[in-house]
Write the structure tokens for this entry.
Amino acid sequence: MAPLGVLLDALITRALSEDLHGGDPTTEAIASPDARAVARAFARTPLVLCGGDVFARVFYLVDPSVRVEAKLADGTRAEPDDELLLVEGPARSLLLAERTALNFLQRLSGIATLARRFADQVPAGNPLRVTDTRKTTPGLRSLERYAVRTGSAFNHRNDLGSAVLIKDNHIALAGGIERAIELSRRHAPHTSRIEVEVESLDALDQALAAGAEIVMLDNFTDELVAEGVRRAKGRALVEVSGGVTLERIATLARLGVDVVSIGALTHSAPAADISLELEPLQPA
């Protein structure tokens, strides 16, 4: 179920205002107030559907009288020409909401589709987790992270307050990895594990010696990942980030990596190709 409620309505309202603040003279000229229509959303390329509830909510906020019917559930794989959703109601309302509804649906389905492609590369039975990052579209994080989960991948920390993650700039400010971990452990709640991003095996050794519970190997080659996993075994979980392609997932899984984090799941996912085709139910 997509996250609905006050925050979602506010987000959709802002999106609608981008299109509707100046009215729609084209629709007003062509569609009479009593004209009714049905619109069907179709997949144009293979995709994983995501955002059906958000799509519907856009139409309901424009006109509560419309009827939206989901033909496929979120998380379903769709093939070209598969019907995804149907909307019926006043023609003017359908045209006013069309672009905003499709923008959400295409964006979220694109993320879910890419996430599923990565998740599918994990060998059966292997515990490797494919996760997103905080590299999300401003204001859309909750929706984009929902899309990642819909695509069978996982979420990393949701915000800065969700977990302790010591990165290169933190280390520079603290004066070193050991000091950064010491300061973080003093401040963090007892329920939070300490994660440290490292860029070399020497830095990894420092993090492990200082008691890091999760180590993020940033831009390591497969050979260095293998050595990093060996050194961290039984001491810390191993996350790999940077340069993680579809082709590397199976290799990283076999090397014993626990988590791979991929910013591209959200910041570079192409929008899914979805069309909305309208038919009049009575003369306009």
Remarks:
- The radius of gyration is 23 Å.
- DSSP finds eleven helices and twelve strands in the chain.
- The chain has two domains: 6-118+270-280, 122-267.
